[in-house]
């Protein structure tokens, strides 16, 4: 169903024959971004389109007759070594800095430049990551630009598609609120909306400069005029948003905006490796799965926090499976760590009791899809807002990452394990999120 929607939407944008040449530029190096991209490319290939996919993770992609990969591995360096558990690394200016590094690094890739200059595509698809200047790729090709957002819709995206935000009725993404909002919250909502827009306006001249730097040479090489940044950035043919009415406030959207949350989720996740399958099968009391995602590394936690958490886990009658990037010494018997874990397959195991997570949008969707309650420890970006929405939906509780993490996590963990309200609510809601 999701696949059908995606393709119908694509067909609306690109009229003509039934097989198209699509250029996907998904430069963000995070693993989660790659999962979303994968869902997109899979659907395009299945429908018989020819896809050229510029990706930071080309090595693990299955070959396909109609798939050409462009290697953007270099962009992985722009985030490597940045510790996202440090607050100074997660401010809006810092995140814009990474986004810029990623975009410039991708734009320097000779293979991508060659494809843009020498080939003619029918559409260009890219992901929004504070990188509005990537509008230039479709402009240089003079074809429709399709945009994918990994997070729920927010004022920056709204400005691009001409969405008029209903300030009195819809809380803006970064500051979740009960609906209907009180008079004070409406006022605050308006203020936050305004500040985000002003922040966006201040950034426009810088975006325009990067746009020219990246795209003017490409346009010249193709012998086409480059539209102004201001025209190109408003020329979004279609916007796919990784959100859904069942998890975020319902709001009116322009007809070229579609919520597609859950589309990356496989209804039948791949089987677990034997060791994990045995471990989960044999954990009769239940399993707690702990992962801070791919950008925030558990290995970045302070030594005392690490020890404190292990201490809490040791006291539990459950198996704890922790995605931890380094080997850990002196592990309690019931705690198992791995540098990488197949999240969707773990979440769908019937013995899973609870998911301790950073509250990334994909993790929230996968948890709710599998009907697993969450204890969210949001760190930055959209995570606090995602966690807050999950709490309001009744299948999650949240704990502050930066203040007394160990103490608060213990209290909340015991609350959630001793009260099946959250578990039942997650199971109930799991019927709502599509895949
Ligand atoms: C590849 O694309 C062509 C159309 O260009 C289509 O006929 C063919 O079925 C596609 N191959 C696969 C394996 O999907
Ligand atoms: C971006 O990359 C440059 C050089 O590659 C580096 O000096 C700079 O620190 C990076 N900025 C961020 C915010 O990562
Ligand atoms: C806007 O997109 C259309 C394709 O959808 C393209 O033909 C047109 O040239 C674009 N205009 C600008 C200003 O980029
Ligand atoms: C929303 O804003 C209020 C007031 O500034 C703040 O107390 C609250 O933590 C914010 N909520 C989220 C989810 O950001
Ligand atoms: C369980 O949690 C729900 C939701 O927070 C709360 O309303 C209820 O009182 C709790 N039950 C017990 C026995 O603590």
CATH structural architecture of the largest domain: 3-Layer(aba) Sandwich
Radius of gyration: 22 Å
Report helical residue fraction.
Answer: 40-55%
Shape: globular
Short description:
The chain has helices at about 1-15, 30-45, 90-105, 110-120, 135-140, 155-160, 185-220, 230-235, 275-280, 305-315, 345, 360-370, 385-395, 405-415, 420-430, and strands spanning about 20-25, 50-55, 65-70, 125-130, 145-150, 235-240, 255-260, 285-290, 320-325, 335-340, 350-355, 375, 395-400.
List the helices and strands and how they pair.
Layout: H1 2-13, E1 21-25, H2 31-46, E2 50-55, E3 67-71, H3 92-107, H4 110-118, E4 123-128, H5 135-141, E5 145-149, H6 155-161, H7 183-222, H8 229-233, E6 236-241, E7 257-259, H9 274-281, E8 287-291, H10 303-314, E9 319-323, E10 335-338, H11 343-347, E11 352-357, H12 361-370, E12 374-376, H13 383-393, E13 396-398, H14 405-417, H15 421-429
Parallel strand pairs: 1-2, 1-4, 2-3, 4-5, 5-6, 6-7, 8-9, 8-11, 9-10, 11-12, 12-13
Bound molecules: 2-acetamido-2-deoxy-beta-D-glucopyranose (5 copies).
